[in-house]
Amino acid sequence: KQEVTQIPAALSVPEGENLVLNCSFTDSAIYNLQWFRQDPGKGLTSLLLIQSSQREQTSGRLNASLDKSSGRSTLYIAASQPGDSATYLCAVGISGSRLTFGEGTQLTVNP
Amino acid sequence: KAGVTQTPRYLIKTRGQQVTLSCSPISGHRSVSWYQQTPGQGLQFLFEYFSETQRNKGNFPGRFSGRQFSNSRSEMNVSTLELGDSALYLCASSLSPYSGGEETQYFGPGTRLLVL
After folding, report:
1. Contact A46 B55 (CB under 8 A)
2. CB of B105 within 8 Å of any CB in chain A?
3. Which of A94, A98, A99 has the most B C-beta neighbours within 10 Å, making it the best mutation to test the interface with B?
4. Could you report the per-residue pLDDT of B30-58, keeping only the tens digit for each?
5. Coil, helix or strand for B77?
6. CA A88 from chain center: how many Å?
7. What are phi and psi of B8, to 5 degrees?
8. pLDDT per residue over A57-77, tens digit each?
9. What's the pLDDT score for residue A46?
């Protein structure tokens, strides 16, 4: 059974800091890995998708890496802003559109 | 292009009742998945529909069911509601999830269900 773990559970940083969120998964047989953000009481917004054959993806200030062999992914956020405050969720695709999610990292960026 | 829409956005029911939630995917998307989100269990996969067929099912009791129509719109039904069914129900759509893992999933805003 695939299990996804995210560390840390919560993170508070001052504005402008670079930060790394971590995600680990137990079964390397994945289709892809996606990072989402969720604002309180809202749905999920897709940030980045890394296919199983890829090593990383970048979008603006975000960079996500994938190491299938070690079962790890990181989300790097450069020059954090208060608007980045949200819960960040890592999800692995294992079959079709079925995703297994981690518990999330709650990020607070203080002005 | 309009995003994924879910109706209703909020719902209050009592134990024992049944409820039907609706999801309209992004135009052209053929896959719809449903998830339950609770503070204790996080996000858990319910089921996936593609071309009107259930392709995957999560570990939920038979009280949870769904279907997909020819226009890709999907509904999920929960019968005999229990207090523990209170949750945010999210649906997601994608173009075709069987194309090698390159398809991003787009989530709707969710339906918040409260069971009293």
Report:
1. no
2. yes
3. A98
4. 999 999 999 989 999 999 999 999 998 99
5. strand
6. 6
7. -75, 175
8. 999 999 999 999 999 999 999
9. 94
pLDDT mean across residues, chain A = 94
- What does the radius of gyration of chain A's CA atoms come to, in whole angstroms? 13
Out of A34, A41, A42, the one facing B105 most closely (by C-beta) is A34
Look at residue B95 in the predicted model and tell me its pLDDT: 85
Flag whether pLDDT at B114 surpasses 80. yes
**Residues in chain A closer than 8 A to B88 (CB atoms):** 41
Mapping DSSP onto H, E and C, the string for A73-99 reads EEEEECCCCHHHCEEEEEEEEEECCEE
What's the pLDDT score for residue B100? 61
Buried b / exposed e along B37-74 (16+ C-beta atoms within 10 A):
beeeebbbbbbbbbeeeebbebebeeebbbebeeebbb
For A100, the token pair is 């297994």
Instruction: Provide, as residue numbers in chain A, all residues whose Cβ is less than 8 Å from the Cβ of B21.
Output: none
Q: Do A44 and B101 touch (CB under 8 A)?
A: no
Name the token pair of A77.
């956020």
C-beta atoms of A43 and B108 within 8 A = yes
